[in-house]
């Protein structure tokens, strides 16, 4: 197990014995080697080896092996045939063809690749920063939308309170009208009851006269027309609440306006992020 205090030093190990900080490297096999393991590694004659200092690994280009001439490296490129060739290939089939140094092309493309790599690393950092910015924006938006929801709830409470006040006022008005209406009916009833009492007394008086059957009293009787008029009836109309359809648009006007959500793209920053993301090499 690697000691955390020496993790930087032990990051690279010999691929054969796992000794820390190997000083050598085989460029052709891409193998890290300590001095003790070099002999064992190069003893494998089934493939070529090129052992260099670890600090110089990858400094020398690895040429393509010629498929026609064993052991030869293709250090040239035939423009006409568009193929890598070795020195023996040139003398045999490519003497009059235009040749160029593969190393020159390799060096130019490698320099371009390094520039592209640097640019892409910068772009990667930009995208990583943008990802962090988005997380920050999301955190801010959570707070903003929570406040919007709270504001709507608060406006709803205010509206509910106003509606409750209005409803209570209406109920009070209705109750006052009811009391007045009942009092008016009670007054009319008292008048009717009083008239009933008078009529009953008159009926009793007539019956007594008839029962007595006295000529003098009956001869003096006069009809009473005061009760021939039927009792007056109090006409009334109950109050009504005019039913109106609640229109959503009118109801929404009671709340503060909610501006629509809008987006805008920072095209200049967007282009900066995209610049250099893709590259191709032949």
TrEMBL record:
InterPro entries: TRIM45/56/19-like, Znf_B-box. Residues 9-54, 66-102 form the B box-type domain. The lineage of its organism: Eukaryota, Metazoa, Spiralia, Lophotrochozoa, Mollusca. Residues 110-137 form a coiled coil. Keywords: Coiled coil, Metal-binding, Zinc, Zinc-finger. PANTHER family: BONUS, ISOFORM C-RELATED, TRANSCRIPTION INTERMEDIARY FACTOR 1-BETA. It comes from the Eukaryota. One of its GO terms (biological process) is protein monoubiquitination. This is Tripartite motif-containing protein 45-like. The gene is LOC111105885.
């Amino acid at each position: 197990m690697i000691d955390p205090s020496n993790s930087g030093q032990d990051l690279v190990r010999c691929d054969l014995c796992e000794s820390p900080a190997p000083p050598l490297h085989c460029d052709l096999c891409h193998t890290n080697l300590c001095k003790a393991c070099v002999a064992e590694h190069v003893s494998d004659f089934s493939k070529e080896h090129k052992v260099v200092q670890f600090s110089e690994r990858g400094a020398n280009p690895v040429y393509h092996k010629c498929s026609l001439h064993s052991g030869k490296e293709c250090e040239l490129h035939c423009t006409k045939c568009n193929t890598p060739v070795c020195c023996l290939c040139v003398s045999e089939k490519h003497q009059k063809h235009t040749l160029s140094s593969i190393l020159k092309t390799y060096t130019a493309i490698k320099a371009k690749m390094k520039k592209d790599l640097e640019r892409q690393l910068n772009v990667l950092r930009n995208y990583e920063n943008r990802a962090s910015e988005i997380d920050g924006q999301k955190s801010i938006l959570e707070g903003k939308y929570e406040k919007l929801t709270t504001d709507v709830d608060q406006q709803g409470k205010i509206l509910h309170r106003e509606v409750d006040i209005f409803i209570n006022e209406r109920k009070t008005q209705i109750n006052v009208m009811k009391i007045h209406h009942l009092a008016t009916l009670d007054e009319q009833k008292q008048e009717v009851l009083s008239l009933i009492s008078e009529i009953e007394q008159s009926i009793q008086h007539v019956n007594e006269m008839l029962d007595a059957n006295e000529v003098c009293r009956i001869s003096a009787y006069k009809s009473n027309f005061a009760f021939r008029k039927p009792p007056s009836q109090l006409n009334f109309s109950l109050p009504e609440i005019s039913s109106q359809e609640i229109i959503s648009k009118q109801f929404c006007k009671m709340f503060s306006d909610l501006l629509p959500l809008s987006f805008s793209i920072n095209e200049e920053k967007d282009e900066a992020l995209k610049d250099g993301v893709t590259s191709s090499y032949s």
